[in-house]
Write a structure and sequence with these properties.
3 domains, 12 helices, 5-stranded antiparallel sheet, globular, alpha/beta, Alpha-Beta Plaits, Immunoglobulin-like
Length: about 550
Amino acid sequence: MVFNKKWSLLLLFLFSAFHLFAQNKQYAFRVQFTNKPTSFSISQPLAYLSQRALDRRLRFAIAIDSSDLPVYSKYTDTVLQLTQGVFHSQSKWFNQIVILLSDSSKIGFLNAKNWIQQVDYIAYYPNGLHAKKTNSLEKNKVQTKGNLFKTTNALSIYGAASKQTSLVNGHLLHAAGFKGQGKLIAVLDAGFFNLYNGFDSLLLQNRILDQFDFVSKDADPTSNGDHGTYVLSTMAGNEPGLYIGAAPHAQYALYRTEDNNSEQLIEMDNLLAALERADSIGADIATMSLGYNEFYTPSYYIFPKSLLDGKTTLAAKAVNKASAKGMIAVAASGNEGGNNWNFLLTPGDADSALTVGTVDSFKNDGPASSPGPNYTGLIKPDVCMLGTPAALLYSRGNVLFAIGTSFAAPQLAAYTACVMQAAPNASLFAIKEAIRKSAHRYALPTNKQGYGVPDFAQVLSNLGIVLPPAKEYPTQIQITPNPCTDFIKITLPTDLNATVPFELFASNGALVYKGSLNFNQTNQASINLPESITRGVYVLSVVIEGQHQKHTFLKL
């Protein structure tokens, strides 16, 4: 789909002759410039980079260069004026912009400009692009107080996430106090709809530092699906006893780059724009649960596998540049295992990416996980996390299980943030190597698992950090019997003299029963379940000494 400029324009004139101009239609073009005249200076980077970004560059001894300078605004203005186009995105790293035109023939006005290097046709929207929202957004709701769980090594506090936590010894990082504090993770995904229950501490503590929708070009990424919400839950979910993610105290930037309504080359431009924004605000890590090999519009196109060589696709180039700027880029390998493609997706092929596949809880291959290596033979995926299946937080604080590298990659990103917190002086290369070397197949990697499943206690050991002996704390509460029939018994680790309100919720989030637990200088209380509580999964919600807890149980 990348044409020589003159041939590209000729084809577009022919293309426009076959399209009646429908109202609101838009054609997307990538316009690359030959040079970058600018009034900005490398010696004054605060004009285009945040202090946090500069601090990160200084920490890793990364110099400011011409690729950091903004695109020349006069070039952009002239292109928009000549074509009567609408600005969509830009890339200072690759000195290019993306514009939307209602009349594709007007791109021809750029043909004689010697400051334009190349023009590529990258998308078509019969009904336009910007401001297309598919969900009527219900604003984020915060229904409970923030859950700052106490340091504990009791896996029961992780609830449904306990398997994916223990598989990589993530709980040992948390027990030592490394929960991602001070680290900023950029999440590039589809929509972040239904971002409330389970994310209350994230919202109340204002740890979402930035957000943007690069598809619709507005500041609200929370509509158009909730795949991003599921991805975020594996990192930031925080409901002790029900679900705790891998970096529950980290900071986040939420970027929608994926358009669920189409699959077009422009989505790699959205990814590039989001990575540049993540760099400019000083993000430490970017995680991408998306990948590309096949495009359906403006015409069907599939990448030859030879392009997935780690450095050729725009997505791979973007990831490599982000890494060169001082971020760790984490990418899903894809869910193409066993199908006709049976290979990585880009940017999972990128040389510098930490590419993630899936395994089950016994470290067996995830059948759908895309195998490597990339086309040059570089081992991909790098490592694997539990994603066959992974536990996720669903809307209104419920849990579901889903299969996919989409849910493995963010787990790795989040634990990497915990590692960066624990080892602030380690280089990015050292951190990535420590993760690979900790994995259980490091001595004998495979195409499906790469180096295998990492051990994050060993990662810190590889970086010269020895975790203190983990103390076993008692479970905050226990529910027995589980499964149950007509009653449940709640046991506390210590005696309590108090009456504690409780609520029972069905698996769909509906409140089905409430009452009080009477602890009369004892550590046990019971709930007799009414006949209306039929067979199924329920959630007990209580507040014990100021700590909100949710625990699931099965009624037979």
